[in-house]
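Two records follow; treat each independently.
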Amino acid sequence: MRNLIIGDTHGSYERLMEVLSKASFDPESDNLYSTGDLADRGEGCVNVIRYLFSLPNFFPVLGNHDLWLLDYLVYGDIEDIWYDYNGGHVTVRDFDMKNVSKSEREKIAERISSTPLLRFSSKWIIAHAGIPFSESMDFLEDFSNKTPEKQRDSFHRDYFVWDREYVDQASEYERAKEEGLDDDYFALPPDTEGRILFVGHTPFIKLFSSEAYHVIDLDTGGFHPTGCMTVMDMDTLEYWQSGKDGKMTLSFER
């Protein structure tokens, strides 16, 4: 059984199916984790959700777009920032055009509501956006053991769903190192004790990683015309991308 993880899908159904095919994904024997943001922007939002939620071994974390979708499905909330500026109108239209029934909407909402913000194990940490710099591994483990509802109600929610500081700092650190600039002023993150942090949320033109920050960002613009969707084997760090041939392997010192 492999442990695969996919970056933000954003309703891009065809790219999702393409990259899973490239990875020879077996729904019955492979685990598939996700960095969240299943819907919005791409035209296949409902198909993405239906397919992923049908899998027996699918383990996502919540992204900000998932929270917007949850509010829409449960309360009928349509926030301007979601609908007008972040692709929410595409999701609303797709739900209407596909005549998604009230009972199916309720089942989707229930599944989203039961999804955690953080997944934590002896080898990996999975969050949509990042983790707080100031918190220990004990804190993250304790937080991951809270119910999804208590996680969403926590003061720390935005660190995992919205906050780009962790990835931004990692990106600036790697840029400074590459350009030979002084990197002494960067605040390095807590010791993850060998764990790799998998995130999405912040899109990069190509796969971004930082060994110093123990992080791999899998958001490679899967919804964008010039982007691609990425699936990675969490154990071997082999990965596949839509629109690209073959298998690649990330060199990453744990």
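The next record belongs to a different protein.
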Amino acid sequence: MKTILAADIGGTNSRFAHFESNQHKVLTLVNTKWLPTTGAKSFPQLLDQLKTSNFTLQPDKADIAVIGIAGPVEHNSYSAPPYIPWAVDLNGDSCSNTFKHSILINDFVAQAYSCRSPIGKRALKILAGQMLAEQTVGVLGAGTALGKAILTPTTSGDFLALPSEGGHAYFPFISPREFSFQEFYREKSGLQEITGNLVVSGKGLHYIHWFLTGEKLEPEEVSARFTAESDTLAWAAKFFGRVCRDFALEAMTRGGLYIAGGVAAKNPELLTHENFRAEFLHSSTMGGLLAEIPVFLMENQDSGLWGAAFHGQQVLQKK
């Protein structure tokens, strides 16, 4: 039996999980622990908080630690994420003796691996299609920001996840009314580059609702007011569908498109709204292809932990 410490370090929360992997490649979740990311002044301090909590696995006892983080990763060991006030350096003096074996990966690389974990197999189908084996899988999701990654099978029978920072690309507004929203967002936020990170995240719900109604509400307050007639819901669903469509075409996700992240998991009506389906399928040239791509919702908010553990299991099997 091998033990795996999985972590998902996000802009708001940091999640940790204790997994076990047996000789039959069965992953078992033993325990989880959530800690506020901003409650620590550094990654080592966050680990100290984990050690003194009721978590069932001490970091130095795990056979492997796989840590997903919301930012670009260098050399599988370093990241200075844009939405977290501190960096993670697994080779630094304060971390070098913390783990037996550790790997740092982008958080949506972890989400990509989760598509082939038990959690991915239980994902909720949102749009029907024909999933093709041995084809590229896409995963995206919004929380504090918008994450993307793709998963591709390898000749050895494993899976390789490839990172992306596509959430920092400009969001494609396409109508005069949407251009007005773009200018509103710029004026109210003081930002000139309105990216996907800003539109389909929790922050986006805040600005969409403010633009349409004049009310300044927190994202949780906005989603609490979602009804079938909600203009805010209609706009947010349309924008989410557009992001998903563009990514499905860019990555040719014939193996399926999976949606993770807190915004969709907490507000599944964004994906079941007619505007999501209509926008996802809207293409004068590729509508037929899009109709063949199945879309799934990863409802479990610990999906990133399962993905990190799945990757750790793959690495351990090669040792």
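Discussion point: The first helix runs from residue 43 to 51. How would you locate this feature using only the token line?
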